[in-house]
Design a protein that fits this description.
This protein is an alpha/beta fold. It has 2 domains: about 130 residues, 3-Layer(aba) Sandwich (Rossmann fold); about 70 residues, Winged helix-like DNA-binding domain superfamily/Winged helix DNA-binding domain (Arc Repressor Mutant, subunit A, Orthogonal Bundle). The chain is about 50% helix and about 10% strand. It is built from 10 helices and 5 strands; from the N terminus they run E-H-E-H-E-H-E-H-E-H-H-H-H-H-H. Helix 1 links the parallel strand 1 and strand 2. Helix 2 packs parallel to helix 3, helix 8 packs across helix 9 and helix 9 crosses helix 10. The radius of gyration is 18 Å and the shape is globular. About 5% of the residues have low confidence.
């Protein structure tokens, strides 16, 4: 008996206090295919509750919501549903808000005026865990990191190989690309990254890239 392999859809939680915006996102995702919206909520508290119950692959979070903000929701979702990756969708363009969201655990930051293709791509790369900084706000964040002062750290915080891996993470490379560039196995890269996260006190690639650049552990990625 033969059969074709099927790919499970990426499950999505949408949290936004504007009903029409939520409906528009659902329509875009369902029309594209490969996505399944498992919950829609209008406030941050409900977003955390639904994330814990539904365990979606991706949570799309507005920043300005009743109850708690999308930034605080991202922080709590990281605890309530550790496998859920979060993308902040907002009209806020200031760099400090971007950094606050990423430090809270958001895996990407996307402006609401992004087109549907950019949204779909952001969801896919975040779902794969490949994006260090995603969305159209990335260039401004990196510019802010360049202008910021580095926080002194111990010289031996990371090994030379860990710095090499982290620098490629900051550039947006996934584990496979890093393994190829450094002549390592993907398993080795994954194990090294776990150690790097523990040393830096972070929980994902985005936070690791930000902390590493801010502390001067790796050079800022090039903005093109």
């Amino acid at each position: 008996m033969t059969g074709s392999a099927t790919t499970e859809p990426i499950t999505i939680l949408i949290a936004d206090d504007h009903t029409m915006f939520r409906q528009g996102l659902r329509e875009i995702l369902e029309r594209k295919g490969g996505f399944r919206v498992v919950a829609e909520v209008s406030d941050g508290i409900a977003a955390v509750a639904q994330a814990g119950e539904r365990r979606p692959d991706i949570a799309l979070l507005d920043i300005s919501m009743p109850g708690i903000t999308g930034i605080e929701a991202a922080r709590q979702i990281a605890v309530a549903s550790p496998t859920t990756r979060t993308i902040v969708l907002t009209m806020h363009r200031d760099e400090r808000t971007v950094l606050e969201a990423l430090r809270a655990g958001a895996n990407a930051y996307l402006l609401k005026d992004a087109d549907s293709a950019e949204l779909i791509e952001a969801i896919r790369v975040v779902h794969r865990g490949e994006a260090a900084l995603a969305g159209s706000a990335a260039a401004r964040v990196l510019d802010m990191l360049r202008r910021g002062e580095h926080t002194p750290v111990a010289a031996d915080l990371l090994t030379p190989r860990e710095r090499d891996i982290l620098a490629l993470v900051a550039q947006g490379d996934d584990n496979r690309a890093i393994a190829l560039k450094l002549s390592l196995s993907e398993k080795t890269v994954g194990n090294r990254l776990i150690e790097v996260f523990q040393k830096l006190g972070v929980s994902n690639r985005t936070q690791a890239a930000i902390v590493a650049v801010q502390r001067g552990l790796v050079p800022p990625p090039q903005v093109v």
